[in-house]
TrEMBL record:
It comes from the Bacteria. This is Pimeloyl-ACP methyl ester carboxylesterase. One of its GO terms (biological process) is glycerolipid catabolic process. GO terms for molecular function: triacylglycerol lipase activity.
Length: 265
């Protein structure tokens, strides 16, 4: 797959880096926590035969700038700037907190032809503890103190309900360096999801583009419940469960080829 590296300047002057591959209608891929453009590259390659695919570094990640002060509005502007750059409208795919960003942008009227989201991490039932409302502040404080390990661990245990013993094992893996390398962006993901990951029903009701909501058949119960709730709240949305998959679906991008190629056209 041949890709081209580019940057575009967002509304506040922050450079946003992206890679473009393929030809056809534009599709923009939005990763979640601990993700940059490289983690959606496999999906970009999968979709490139049918679309002009844009994989970008959300602000603060990879080759993109961070800007002076973070806000959800700035991230929405980044996505809107990319859409304008590739022609004024585009389909969008978002994974996890990237799905939340896609829904946020759509609810604010950012120009999209369609929106596909995979497991936006809202908490809609009691199948897991709700994140504490001060989690954003505590993770940000650890980042400010230079404790990237602590920030990543706290985010995983309380933000994603990953068992503490699992995270302890993750810290012993060489790949943990990837998590700590992106720990400074975790407050961004928490800001997107909001205090307690509360389900934003009124906001979702404003989404007016064709929307596909997906989850994995092997995903945690709380993630699957959230996906179904989003599909119910977004007018006219379609819900699909991808059998045999979980939250790590980006590692198996070919399983999304048929669904996304059919829906995003």
């Amino acid at each position: 797959m041949t890709t081209s590296f580019e940057t575009v300047t967002s509304a506040d002057g922050t450079p946003i880096a992206f890679e473009r591959a393929g030809e056809g209608a534009p599709v923009i891929l939005v990763g979640g926590a601990f993700n940059d453009r490289t983690t959606v590259a496999g999906l970009a390659s999968t979709l490139a035969p049918n679309f002009a695919v844009v994989a970008y570094d959300r602000r603060g990640r990879g080759d993109s700038g961070a800007g002076a002060v973070y806000s959800v509005e700035r991230e929405v502007e980044d996505l809107a700037t990319l859409i304008d750059h590739v022609g004024g409208t585009a389909a969008v795919f978002g994974h996890s907190s990237g799905a939340v960003l896609g829904l946020e942008a759509a609810a604010r009227g950012v120009a999209m032809t369609s929106l596909a989201v995979y497991e936006p991490p809202f908490v809609v039932d009691d199948s897991r503890p709700r994140p504490a409302t001060d989690l954003f502040d505590r993770v940000r404080a650890l980042v400010a103190a230079g404790d990237r390990d602590g920030a990543a661990e706290l985010f995983l245990v309380e933000g994603t309900a990953t068992p503490a013993e699992v995270v302890k094992g993750m810290r012993d893996d060489p790949f943990w360096a990837w998590f700590t390398g992106l720990a400074h962006t975790l407050p961004y993901d928490l800001a997107l999801c909001g205090p307690g990951n509360v389900f934003p029903a009124d906001k979702l009701a404003k989404v007016a583009v064709p929307t596909l909501v997906m989850d994995g058949g092997e995903s945690d119960a709380w993630m699957r419940a959230a996906a179904r709730a989003v599909a119910d709240a977004v007018p006219g949305a379609r819900y699909v469960s991808v059998e045999g998959q979980d939250h790590g679906v980006l590692q198996q991008p070919d399983v999304l080829r048929g669904l996304l190629t059919e829906f995003l056209r």
